[in-house]
Protein: Phosphate transporter
Organism: Methyloceanibacter marginalis
Amino acid sequence: MTVRGDSASGVGVDKVRKTSLDKDLRKIERLEEATRAVSRNRLALGIAVLFLATAGVLASSQIGASQNAVLMVVAAVIGGYMALTIGANDVANNVGPAVGARALTMTGALVIAAIFECAGALIAGGDVVQTISKGIIDPALVGSSDVFVWVMMSALLASALWVHLATFLGAPVSTTHAIVGGVLGAGVAAVGVDVVDWFVVTSIFASWLTSPLIGGVIAAGALAFIKVNLIYQEDKIAAARRWVPVLVALMAAIFAAYLVVKGLSHIWTPGLLAVMAISVLVFALAYLGAKPWVRSQSEGMENRNQGLRKLFHLPLICSAALLSFAHGSNDVANAVGPLAAILTSAESGVLLTEVGVPFWVMLIGAVGISLGLFLFGPRIVRIVGEQITKMNPMRAFCVALSAAFTVLVASQLGLPVSTTHIVVGAVFGVGFFREYYTANSRRRRHYIRTHKRNQPVRKSFAASPDELRRRKLVRRSHFMGIVAAWAITVPSAALLSALIFFAVDWMR
């Protein structure tokens, strides 16, 4: 008995020692991970500072001995900072769903997005941009060029700081709304409320309310179509061969129109009939190409949803690239537009509604956006693609389709919308639709009952009604946090911009 007791005691001691050792090893692993994270953050910060210094040197070499040379160099650095924050926050929305769906690795997504963001900015970014984002204030009421320069400087710095803070907090926000808020706040601080075009401001707020809802509804509708016609079909392979080519062709047609209307708008502006003709032609060609491709990919494929998901990988990769190209061609203006306005006004003393953008200014914007995505973008990529709701290739496909279609329709109607709001709204739409469909779909319940005997029931299939009510497929904390960040972006950027303007005006 004593021997057994000693043996049991020894085993107990060994277990305690092993448990203590495991805990110590886990602490060391967490410490090593934290150390590596700090090292990466320091490296990223160092590279960002080096980029900003390079932007300043480049500006100095291009400006020469101008009367306001120092001011213009500082403006170039702030413009580079704004570009970094755009890349860190805004661009992540284009590739987040594809990364969350495992169609792209994080590295692959960053490379594709960086390349196509740069290409969009440099090829189709335009030689001329608006000096005032969305025309929210009237330059004629500002008065002197000096005041105008400081208005734009304050707006640029305030919007960059706000987007930086939002990125740090993990909130995907609209950089367009941030720069609008910055211009609004500094304009009111400099001149008063009469300088603001309140109709434009009202339309921007209206777009904040409508665009995420539209994006969510379209994404939910696309997912409903896929569930009914693909996922809950007896012969999934036959259904995929019938419908996936149609879906791929539809996405190709929408993206063709999207690129013509948004991505190439600075170098070509076709009419509505031309856009429709291009879309129809692309749809036909894409369908003819996708049909044999889907057939070859589905040969020998198991009659399971896992096989269907593989058919959406390639369209997702293409959509991430095209969204990045269109984003680079349009949203680079959020960084280079105010910067070009500052440079022109500081050098010539003339206030213009539109200004030319030198290549070196566009280069700062393009490289800054790509660099910001590489250095600081993965955090937002993971939040959009993984943490709001679970993504798979079919759900991510619906998000991309919804984003392109919503932006396209809004552009034709002349509505100012945010790609960020639409993409994130589409992600929420997919998640909330899944919650509703899981709890209420008769088709789903019938499909599960008829397949119970032939295959093991997944945990989600076997969940009780109480469990389904308790389990939420959309993280409410992310939903509330992101919506709150959207709601305060314009007023926060406006307040910060006004404070910066007052501080600069006091020091002058």
Summary: The chain is about 80% helix and 0% strand.
